[in-house]
């Protein structure tokens, strides 16, 4: 069981959420935990790439580079639907979204 206080700042999790975190962490292999340390980059909607990073590599997140709004939505939806653990999503959009 993780010893963090997940009920307080910055998590604010309820008992059910904390149970999920603890059970998920307990069932992760060492390779799963290592995979969570990595973020990859995506420049386009690529189903095979998303399957590979979510199912095989089990990465912790993805950075979306400039792409169309539609591709961004499809990419994030596809990736999250394949991941056992929700991924952290970042974006490099200081130049704006490529709408």
Quick overview:
With 99 residues, this protein is α/β, with parallel strands linked by helices. Helices cover 43% and strands 12% of the residues. Strands 1-2-3 form a three-stranded parallel beta sheet, with no helix packed on it.
Distance between the termini: 44 Å
Task: Let me know the largest β-sheet.
Answer: 3 strands, parallel
The total count of helices amounts to 4
Which geometry do the CA atoms define?
globular
Q: Oligomerization state of this entry?
A: single chain
Strand order of the largest sheet: 1-2-3
Structural class by helix and strand composition: alpha/beta
SS strand fraction: 5-15%
In helices, the fraction of residues equals: 40-55%
SSE string: HHEHEHE
Give Rg in angstroms.
15 Å
Report the strand count.
Answer: 3
Unreliably modeled segments: none
Averaged pLDDT: 87
